[in-house]
Amino acid sequence: MSREELEALQLERLRWTLRHAYEHVPMYTRKFDEHGVHPDDLRRLEDLAKFPFTTKEDLRRNYPFETFAVPMEQVRRVHASSGTTGRPTVVGYTERDLDVWAQGVARVLRIAGARPGDIVHNAYGYGLFTGGLGAHTGAEKAGLTVVPMSGGQTPRQVQLMKDFGSRIIMCTPSYLLTILDYMRGNGMDPTDTPIEIAILGAEPWSEEVRQELERGLGVKAVDIYGLSELMGPGVAGESAEHQQGSTVWEDLFLPEIVDPDRLDRVLPDGEEGELVFTSLTREAMPIIRYRTKDLSRLLPGDARPAMRRMQKVRSRTDDMIILRGVNLFPSQIEELALRQEALAPQYHLELTRPKRLDELTVVIERRPEFDAAAGEACGRGLQESIKLTIGSSVRVCVVEPDTLPRSEGKAKRVHDYRDRDVSEYPRHERSH
Ligand code: DLL
Predict the structure, then answer these.
(1) Edge-to-edge strand list for the sheet holding 168-171
(2) In contact, 304 and 296? CB cutoff 8 Å
């Protein structure tokens, strides 16, 4: 499809989506009316900028099913986000929505290099989280064989991927680090598995982690992006040939980049800002201009020239730590840490407020092949490089190998103790 043909299709689908949302979801009727817009006001794709945004808060307020645009007898499945604070957000799918979702993931598998006969080891968590079932149905749709492992039970995962000859693994990048670590720690050669391709997502991961995993396991690691509010994994996927950001399935989702501080401003391609998506085919739960909080930029297509790519998401607007006036993102620290040869990609960021000022401690493991002195030296190196490149003074606490908890799904990197009493701080924080 040429870009012109794609845009014509987008316009037609967008018109349908706006009308469907306005006519069947009271939340959208209200929002459009309050905003003084009507679906008929959309004449060109650019007119979408006139329509109001949708936020996670909007979805929470309409918990559980008020955002559904079809009667319940047409809803075949629901998923929900983890909802660490307050109510989860619920997502519904019609039969056709489930089919489109599977297609989205199947396309990701295809540009990642999957071919008929491949066995897919699926270690995304099954359940309300969209990762497990999303990857599962996508792999089936792509005509592959799925092993529905879910997360956890690492020794068994390793055994079965070897026994079954799985060529592809799908899991979070932090869980693949856990698998790599487990193999190294148990005297196995991590390159001695049948896995050739790892399709990783659900959390930010740096180029440094990509290299660590590719070298450590002898695989090609590509990105898969998505979020439950839009459907789940498979909104975009990265080509194994280029490894330069994920192609957005623009016939299914319309991406925009907006200035996170001035939301009325849609930014041109190439500029960094907050990703905003509008669904183009969803029946059960159309979503209009959903603010993802993910920071990215739109780039020209590579593997599928008519469709734009999104730069790999390294941070979210709500991940940003403001440390004594300096803004920093966990991903920046990860990148700097992995340039220190004796430091491992297992780390926590701890925020405390011992006196009245915020402090940040990077708690990071030493790699087992280095001694304590080398670890300490690299810890000092990391502290200096953070000061130099980000401008913040932080503490770095290098801990023994294999002492931080390992991730089986999405890793929790930032631990915020600022509102806690000092007596509740982790032990190494109390002495300062
Ligand atoms: O994490 C869906 C998913 C499952 C994507 C499996 C890929 C693989 P949620 O739990 O709703 O859905 O979380 C969505 O996770 O807004 C991003 O902040 C983050 N995220 C997802 N994929 C990536 C990625 C799933 N490839 C939120 N890189 C999103 C960076 C990602 N962040």
Answers:
(1) 145-148, 119-122, 168-171, 197-201, 220-227, 232-238, 246-248, 309-310, 298-299
(2) no
* Residue 49 CA, ligand 1 centroid: distance in Å: 25
Separation of 234 CA from ligand 1 center, angstroms?
10
Of the residues 313, 315, 331, which should be mutated to test ligand 1's pocket, given the most ligand atoms within 8 Å of the CB? 313
For the segment 20-60, what is each residue's pLDDT rounded down to a tens digit? Answer: 999 999 999 999 999 999 999 999 999 999 999 999 999 99
What span, in angstroms and rounded, lies between the C-alpha atoms of 70 and 382? Answer: 53
Distance of alpha carbon 274 from alpha carbon 227, whole angstroms: 14
Cα–Cα distance measured from residue 345 to residue 216, given in angstroms and rounded to the nearest whole number: 12
The verdict on pTM exceeding 0.85 is yes
Euclidean distance between CA atoms 347 and 349, whole angstroms: 7
Q: Is the CB of 131 under 6 A from ligand 1?
A: yes
Distances (CA, A) of 39 to 33, 75, 152, 366, 417: 10, 24, 46, 57, 46
